[in-house]
Amino acid sequence: MSYHLEGRLLEVCNCNVLCPCWIGEDPDNGTCDTIVAWRIDKGMVDGVDVGGNTIAAVAHVPGNILLGNWTAAIYVDDQASKAQEEALLKVYTGKAGGPVAELAALIGEVVSVERAPIRFNVNAGKGELTIGNNYYAELEPYLGATGGQTTLSDTVFSTVPGAPVFVGKAPVYRSKNAALGIDLNIKNHNALQSTFVFDA
Asked: Which of 62, 107, 114, 191 is close enough to 170 for a disulfide, judged by CB 3.0 to 4.6 Å?
């Protein structure tokens, strides 16, 4: 199994702004309820073109994000073909190895894997994410004194060396998953967006 994936990453959670997880510190509330979504703009997995799809993890993180033991529900874009779904799940469950396997290893339990309509309309830290009926986030970037967008670099979660991580907030963040114990409807908490390139 080999893959090349590139696209945009979105992370929204119930930490305050700015989420400490991105620099390896403990979450603001002791635990973290998050959505991480990967919009694949271009990608191949073992010869299967997976570009144009989104895969997302809704997760409860019980402590420091780097210590793992997350509990997660995985959502695959319902526009994906069966072959694309199988290819994406091989990568994002860690079976294909490489850098995504290191991320997948942080998840201790997957409570469900489902297909859902996913709308990922986020670029340069601004836009919206919708997954089915139970998950929604708006994103607004922070701006510097000259009007440029505030970014981080060289964070512990950066997947492209030198790529900017756009710092923002979520004017609205809704997430509801009984199996994960998540029921959120909050305003103006953390949101970050970046790019990724994964090769294996």
From this structure: 191
Q: Show Cβ contacts of residue 61 under 8 Å, excluding neighbours closer than 6 positions.
A: 21, 27, 31, 32, 33, 34, 70
Torsion-angle region of residue 30: left (phi > 0), alpha (psi -120 to 50) or beta? left
In angstroms, the CA 19 to CA 52 distance is 28
Q: Residue 194: which of 72, 81, 39 has the closest Cα?
A: 39
Question: Contact, 46 vs 86, CB < 8 A?
Answer: no
Contacts of 179 (CB under 8 A, 6+ apart): 73, 111, 112
**What's the pLDDT tens digit per position in 130-181?**
999 999 999 999 999 998 889 888 887 766 666 788 999 999 999 999 999 9
The residue type found at 106 is: L
